[in-house]
Amino acid sequence: MLQATDLSVEFASRGRRARAVDGVNLTVGAGEIVALVGESGCGKTTLARTLLGLERPAGGEVRYAGAPLSYRPRDLKAYRRKVQLVLQDPTGSLNPRQTVYEAVAEGPRIHGLPNEEEVVAEALSRAGLRPPERFFLRYPHELSGGQRQRVVIAGALALKPDVLIADEPVASLDASVRGEILALLLRLRDELGLSALVVTHDLGLAWNIADRVAVMYLGRIVESGPTEQVLQDPQHPYTQALLSVLPESQQKIVLTGEPPDPTRIPSGCRFHPRCQLVMAECSTTPLAVLPAVDDHQAACLLLKLGR
């Protein structure tokens, strides 16, 4: 459904170019949920925005249903009906002066969909707000955090998209509500055949919801594959470090320093300045960009050398 090929995104930063996304290959199949995980600042949100057409890539391309993404306004409008965004903070996503009905009806109005009230009611019902008419005239401040996030999801569902891109969809919610929203996303996948790219730093969330996981570091995918394989048998030292912070982990790995400056990406393996298994060759040996395949793969020199 959605594919990134050799995707690169750059920004100007203090007279230099910051490579926020640097050669990413990623696919989201029909009816598949893919989790994109990594630390803050690794490029996850920039990649998501580029897949939505909100950022223009410096290199590579985005494809939807096999066709390259066109950046002409009319084509982008049609594309965004099929690929919808669910943001992290439902309070910030909703206009406090708009009722629930107005918030959900905004997309259908922009796209000129008929039977507006019926479309809004169906979207709210699918998002778990039933009976939907009871929520039409409510304002965001009258709802709980979980209900607000359901309204945001309903606003995306009102356009009957094929793909949802959810950027930290439960990060701002209480633990008791997170499970409900994750269960909702799984139910929507099963009932509607929706595909989803879930951007998160929470590997526990990825374990519960994703079919495949892609681990991102400093603008590049460093490990990817089926969720169980990646999270039960991580091959890249960065993935191992991320997993070590989970409560059930027996070995804690503490990474030193912060992610490097994207305007000064290290030579060789970009993770080597912080790696707990670093070798001398890691600073000089370049690693190939991972292709977009379903198999478990990792960009690590240890694997290349068979150690």
Automatic annotation (TrEMBL):
The keyword ATP-binding applies. GO terms for biological process: peptide transport; transmembrane transport. Gene3D superfamilies: P-loop containing nucleotide triphosphate hydrolases. Keywords: ATP-binding, Nucleotide-binding, Transport. Pfam families: ABC_tran, oligo_HPY. Residues 2-243 form the ABC transporter domain. One of its GO terms (molecular function) is ATP hydrolysis activity. SMART domains: AAA. The keyword NAD does not apply. Transmembrane segments: none annotated. InterPro entries: AAA+_ATPase, ABC_transp_ATP-bind, ABC_transporter-like_ATP-bd, ABC_transporter-like_CS, Oligopep_ABC_C, P-loop_NTPase. PANTHER family: D,D-DIPEPTIDE TRANSPORT ATP-BINDING PROTEIN DDPF-RELATED, TRANSPORT ATP-BINDING PROTEIN. Belongs to the ABC transporter superfamily. This is Oligopeptide/dipeptide ABC transporter, ATPase subunit. It comes from Kribbella flavida (strain DSM 17836 / JCM 10339 / NBRC 14399).
